[in-house]
Amino acid sequence: MNIIICIKQVPDTTNVKINPETNTLIREGISSIINPFDLYAIEEGLRLKEKFGGKVTVISLGPPQAINALKEAVGMGADEAIQLSDRAFAGSDSWATAYTLSLAIKKLGAFDIILCGKQAIDGDTGQVGPGIASQLGITQLTYVFKIIRVDPETGALTVERLLEEGREVVEAKLPALLTVVKDINQPRPTSLFHIRRASKLIIPTWTVADLPGADPSNLGLTGSPTQVIKIFSPPKHEGVLELIKADSVEESAAILADKIIAKKVL
Amino acid sequence: MPLLDIDKDKCIGCGACIDACPFGALSLVDDMVVVNDKCTGCGACLLACPMHALSLPEKLPLKMAGNLASYSGVWVWVEQFHGQTDGISVEMLGQGRKLADQRNVALTACVLGHHVEHIAKEAISFGADRVFLVDDESLSFYTTAPYASTLINLASEYKPEIFLLGASARGRDLAGSVASLLHTGLTADCTGFDIEPENGLLLQTRPAFGGNIMATIICPNHRPQMATVRYRVFEKPIADYQRQGQVIPIKAAMSVDRITAHVVESILEKDEVNLADARVIVAGGHGVGGPAGFETIRKLADVLDGAVGSSRSAVDAGWISYAHQIGQTGRTVRPDLYIACGISGQIQHLAGMKTSKVIVAINTNPDAPIFNIANYGIVGDLFEIVPALTKQFKKKLHK
Question: Does the beta-carbon distance from A249 to B374 stay under 8 Å?
Answer without folding.
Answer: no
